[in-house]
Amino acid sequence: MIVKVKNVSKTYKNRLKALNNLSFEVREGEIYGLLGPNGSGKTTSINCLLSLLNYEAGEIEIFEEKMTPERYDIKAKIGFVPQNIAVFYELTVYENIDYFCGLYINDKEKRKALVEEAIDFVSLNDYRNFYPKKLSGGLIRRLNIACGIAHKPQLVIFDEPTVAVDPQSRNKILEGIVKLNQQGATIIYTSHYMEEVEQICSYIVIMDKGEIIMHGTKEKLKNSISLGESCEIHIDNPKAEYIDLIKQIPNVLDCYYKDQLLVIKSGKGKTNIPNILNVFTTHNIKYGKLYSSIPTLNDVFLEVTGKHLRD
Amino acid sequence: MRMYLVRIKCLLRNKDNVFWAFIFPLLLGTFFYLGFGKLSMDDSLNTINVYVTSHDKDHQLVTILEDISYGDGKKLFKVNTSFDLDQLNQSFADKEIDNFIYLQDGLINYKIIENGIEETIIKSVLDKYIQGEALVKKVMETNPENVEKVLSSFLNPKTYLVEATSGTNPNSNKLIIYFYALIAMACTFASYWGIGLVNDIQADASPLATRVNITPTHKLKLILIYTLAAITIHFTGNLGLIAYLKYILGIEFAHNTWLIILTSLIGTISGIALGAFLSTIIKGTFDKKSGIITTISLLLSFLSGLMVVDVKYLVQKNAPILGLINPTNLLTECFYSLYYYNDIGKYFYNLGILALISLILIFSTYLKMRGNKYDSI
Fold first, then answer.
1. For residue B196, is pLDDT > 70?
2. What residue segments make up the domains of chain A, in order of their start?
3. Does the N terminus or the C terminus of chain B have fewer Cβ atoms within 10 A?
4. Would you call B207 and A84 a contact, using CB atoms and an 8 Å cutoff?
5. Does B10 touch chain A (CB under 8 A)?
6. Distance (Å) from the C-alpha of residue B346 to the closest C-alpha of chain A?
7. pLDDT category of residue B37 using cuts at 50, 70 and 90
8. Does domain A3-222 sit in CATH 3.40.30.10?
């Protein structure tokens, strides 16, 4: 077990209960996703894990050793990419990565090779002599990542690394994280973007109000809810009575209009769409395009908490 | 060594740091020099032109006026006896001359414009002469045998007042203390470098510090390296300031420049140590910490008498312990010891306490940060 968090509780001075009896375990080789809305306790969990924050109850082990602020031997095997940009604005891209790598690696030649590898990894070759102020939001995020991973840690913790990043850079970052994992690093990844977590994480914990409300693989999570399929159908002449008609179809869980689209949520089943189209034909309801999708993690979150992930 | 050099690089590339450490003290020194420094460096006491009527004059007075000189032989007065009373009256009315002396009914009279140091000097000398002349005349009439004695006591007056700061440097120039204060101020500026240091190491102070805290680098090592780098840069700035004041502006400090440099070094360390320690106990942003530390620095300066001199003596009299634990006071005491008191023992005593306080503050900073977990980040 790479990380073991057992019954950790943390209350801030303003009496906000940030973590409530939190427990989870991260196994070697996983990309472990902590998913939850802002304020759900993801960053607090990471800060407790890294022994930055004190907590009133619980135990935390990393690499099967109790984690404390002075366990430098454990810290040497960890890489951390914080949510906020944490680089020296007075140093260039190369100098920043070299400095942070140097806090872990003493050998000059080895460090040089690792820094070059990290620059390649985040595709900052063309910007190696740039100062952070001259970099775009996406590029500076990549630098932030390079500073956390250059020393090739066994465990890398990413705390919302794609906040305020353009889609192109986001994809680069996600690809990089998967690549790191393929190279042997165990990853803990926090985000409130369900698409990202769904895309890269092999195991997912969904958090809300400092508690784990569900966990498992994405397939397991999606299977655990009653929703099986969502359909969105363009209706030429939307009428309220159509909703009542649709709701009478077996296995339909919910139905409502969203702009010109009729949204139909159905349970698990193989004949949901044929059944719906059959009603349309029978009642001569004219329809246009039809989109069908399987449940997302947002649907899972919505069903469990009654609210959307980004609420 | 690598970390030290990178830290130096970071500090030097920060424009604010460079301005406050290197440029601002030089600018202030230049302003001091232009404002009043030059006044004190020059021979500000000039020979004064005195006008005496060309005829009907007191020859003895003229001789005395011509004989009075500064310690270095420079004459105090240049006596001009080329004009008669009417011409002098006219010139005085036209404000072409500021003074003239004439006899009326055998008595010495004078007219002077009643302002300025030169006029005050003329008046003092003449009053004393008139007073002396009257005294001698009276003694000659009553006790002629005592004239010599009276003349002697008159010409060699006894002083019954002794300067309170006995043992002071007789060559001290009161304005030079402003340049010492400038060096002291530059040292106290180092407290902001202490804030910067903690800001980059204490996990709850900045994202950068959070990242540094997760690395396997020992806290004490970080504190020492960052402190050393800050001392290097700030002290270099101070050396530049001292060199500028001494060699460019020509300020004459106390005899031993090395002791001023040593004071500046310990002062820089104490400034950084104080800033760092206060920064660990004050929660909040860099700006908030800067604000509070500025207030504390001003208070310490006030208690050291840098704003109102009497406060220093009040503190010394009523709460001497406050003076002993106030780094700014110790720093000024060091400079006073060198310049006013000329007392090396007192100097090293104050410098030693300052160094000890600095060490305690640095160690306390480490203890505050060591193995610390925080309530919030």
1. yes
2. 3-222, 226-294
3. N
4. yes
5. yes
6. 43
7. low
8. no
Question: Does residue B334 belong to any structural domain of this protein?
Answer: yes
**What is the full DSSP assignment across A53-102?**
B--SEEEEEETTEE--TT-HHHHTTEEEE-SS----TTS-HHHHHHHHHH
Summarised one tens digit per residue, pLDDT across range A260-273 is: 899 999 998 888 99
Average pLDDT, chain B: 83
Kindly state whether residue B307 falls inside one of the protein's structural domains.
Answer: yes
- Please check whether residues B177 and B298 belong to one and the same domain: yes
Residue B171: pLDDT above 90? no
pLDDT in tens, A128-170: 999 999 998 889 999 999 999 999 999 999 999 988 888 888 8
Q: Who among A50, A84, A91 is closest to B214 (CB)?
A: A50
Tens digit of pLDDT for each residue in B244-269?
A: 988 898 887 766 788 899 999 999 99
- For residues B266 and B289, state if they share a domain: yes
Report DSSP letters for B166-198, one per residue.
TT--TT--TTHHHHHHHHHHHHHHHHHHHHHHH
Q: Does B3 sit within 8 Å of A102, measured CB to CB?
A: yes
A90–B14 C-beta distance less than 8 A: yes
Whether residue A174 contacts residue A196, with contact meaning beta carbons closer than 8 Å, is answered with yes
B132: CATH:
3.40.190.10
CA of B218 vs chain A CAs: smallest distance (Å):
7
pLDDT over 80 (residue B191): yes
Residue A195's contacts (CB-CB under 8 Å, 6 or more residues apart) are A296
Give percent of chain B above pLDDT 70.
90
Facing A99 at nearest CB: one of B6, B210, B374: B6
In chain A, residues with a C-beta closer than 8 Å to the C-beta of B215 are: 75, 100, 103-104
Report CB contact under 8 Å: B10, A91. yes
C-alpha distance from A68 to closest chain B C-alpha (Å) = 8
DSSP assignments along A200-223, one per residue? H-SEEEEEETTEEEEEE-HHHHHH
Q: Quote the CA–CA distance of A111 and A88 in Å, as a whole number.
A: 18
- pLDDT value, residue B138: 82
- Contact across the interface for A69 and B373, Cβ inside 8 Å: yes
Tokens 């045998």 map to which residue? B145
Do residues B227 and B179 share a domain?
yes
Predicted local confidence at residue B255, as pLDDT: 63
Q: Does A289 touch chain B (CB under 8 A)?
A: no
Q: In Å, how far is A101's CA from the nearest CA of chain B?
A: 9
Query: A226-294: which CATH architecture?
Result: 2-Layer Sandwich (3.30)
| Residues B35, B150 within the same domain | no
Q: Which residues in A lie closer than 8 A to residue B214 (C-beta atoms)?
A: 50, 52, 75, 78, 80
Q: What is the pLDDT of residues A215-262, one digit of tens each?
A: 999 999 988 899 999 999 998 888 888 899 999 999 999 999 988 899
Between CA B16 and CA B255 the distance in angstroms is 34
Cβ contacts of residue B212 below 8 Å, gap of 6+? A103, B200, B201, B203, B222
* Residue A118 reports pLDDT greater than 70: yes
Q: In this predicted structure, which of B52-56, B116-120, B313-317 has the lowest mean pLDDT?
A: B116-120
R_g of chain A computed on alpha carbons: 23
The closest CB to that of B211, out of A53, A69, A82, belongs to A82
Give the integer Cα–Cα distance in Å for B189 and B301: 12
Token pair in block for residue B161: 């007042």
pLDDT band at B140 (very low <50, low <70, confident <90, very high): confident
Residues of chain B contacting residue A54, judged by C-beta atoms under 8 Å apart: 373-375
Task: Establish if B165 belongs to a structural domain.
Answer: no
